[in-house]
Design the sequence.
């Protein structure tokens, strides 16, 4: 069987649109009645005002900042974001809080099951099957992503091994001991596991991992390929968030991500105006409405994720709308000397052309009136001095071509840059604050 839900995954796109519009109207009425945030936000509007997907524009986007404000209300700790009675909440999750006070996310048993079902689509699409023994190399704590992965793997019939409370070497040992054959991790941590395994004298390709699903960071194609080569496995990408849930995943064609329809209504809007739906091939901001989660209603949530809109057709036969690329967070885009810069471009260059670079960090500073970008690159320990100099010169050249900016390159000794176990912080803009 190719699909988790053969009926939904092959519905004609027009039919998916109709279903989503009808679900959206239901969610609109529900949210207006049950969540203080939307009681206020949707004042003066009715579900009947939304006759077509074009009418969505009449509804203001939901921003994280206003969610923080409504969260301060009663009942503690979810406040005006809650869409069910507080006694019905069965699971507490929260956002990481890297950009401010965390958002607390209530799930009832019903809403959690809805979320898991959507995640099953992501996993099944990435080829996860009952014979997979899935290793999750994290302590999940109060963060949602790996809990979703855990429960959805179980629902699919996989066997799950929670890998928290171990260091990276302990995890490598556990993978070998239990013969895990599938894994879910951030791209950064996948690379780190490979590096640690090699230090232990273990070739990561011999670990027996067949499938890897990545999350948490934009993954350039070159990083995905590098992971595939290191582990000799198939690597898939997906996108989601604590508030928006996991809303798109990569199928075995490995050519972009499918939006999980009709679980989510996803708009991809022009990033300047946040009004116009972009055309195929254009980059825009993903605005997501989860259509079945009543414990925490969200209408037109601004994810601030920049994605490239793709087609609504695919070699795999699924009919859902695709995105061809996850560009990154809009917050990570910077103007440097008047040029728009995305840290993902640097990662793409390094992973594609510089296998000798093990880790890197980008620092932007203002010196006098000039913005200076420094790339600190840590190279493989066995590299000779001449080879290091050649790498330095090639980095200079390649980064200039890829970004239109000159970099100050500093070669660092092995082990001098930090390693990250969840999301990497390889980009530092010191011009702010
Ligand atoms: Zn596909």
Sequence:
């Amino acid at each position: 069987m190719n699909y988790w839900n053969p009926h939904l995954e092959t519905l004609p796109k027009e039919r998916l649109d109709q279903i989503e519009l009808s679900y959206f109207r239901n969610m609109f009425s529900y949210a207006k009645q049950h969540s203080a945030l939307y009681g206020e936000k949707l004042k003066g509007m009715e579900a009947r005002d939304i006759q077509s997907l074009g009418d969505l524009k009449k509804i203001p986007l939901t921003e994280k900042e206003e969610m923080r404000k409504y969260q301060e209300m009663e009942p503690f700790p979810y406040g005006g974001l809650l869409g069910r009675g507080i006694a019905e909440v069965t699971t507490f999750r929260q956002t990481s809080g890297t950009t401010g006070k965390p958002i607390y996310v209530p799930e009832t048993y019903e809403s959690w099951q809805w979320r898991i079902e959507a995640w099953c689509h992501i996993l099944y699409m990435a080829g996860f099957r009952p014979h997979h023994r899935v290793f999750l190399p994290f302590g999940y704590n109060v963060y949602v992503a790996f809990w979703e992965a855990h429960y959805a793997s179980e629902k699919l019939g996989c066997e799950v091994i929670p890998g928290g409370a171990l260091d990276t070497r302990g995890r490598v040992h556990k993978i070998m001991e239990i013969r895990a054959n599938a894994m879910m991790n951030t791209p950064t941590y996948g690379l780190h596991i490979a590096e640690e395994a090699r230090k232990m004298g273990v070739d990561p390709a011999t670990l027996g991992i067949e499938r890897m699903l990545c999350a948490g960071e934009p993954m350039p194609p070159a990083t995905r390929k590098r992971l595939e080569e290191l582990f000799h496995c198939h690597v898939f990408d997906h996108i989601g968030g604590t508030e928006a849930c996991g809303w798109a995943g990569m199928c075995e064609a490995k050519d972009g991500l499918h939006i999980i329809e009709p679980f989510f209504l996803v708009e991809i809007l022009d990033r300047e105006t946040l009004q116009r739906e972009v055309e195929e091939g254009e980059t825009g901001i993903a605005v997501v409405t989860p259509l079945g989660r009543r414990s925490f209603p969200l209408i037109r949530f601004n994810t601030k994720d920049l994605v490239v809109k793709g087609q609504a057709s695919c070699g795999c036969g699924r009919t859902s709308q695709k995105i061809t690329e996850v560009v990154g967070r809009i917050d990570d885009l910077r103007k440097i000397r008047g040029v728009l810069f995305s840290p993902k471009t640097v990662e793409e260059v390094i992973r594609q052309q510089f296998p000798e670079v093990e880790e890197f960090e980008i620092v932007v500073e203002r010196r006098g009136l000039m913005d200076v970008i420094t790339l600190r690159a840590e190279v493989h320990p066995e590299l000779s001095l001449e080879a290091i100099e050649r790498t330095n010169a090639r980095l200079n050249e390649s980064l200039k071509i890829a970004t239109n900016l000159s970099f100050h390159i500093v070669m660092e000794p092995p082990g001098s840059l930090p390693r990250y176990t969840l999301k990497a912080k390889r980009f530092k803009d010191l011009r702010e604050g």
User: Anything to note?
Assistant: The radius of gyration is 22 Å. The first helix runs from residue 6 to 9. The chain is about 30% helix and 25% strand.
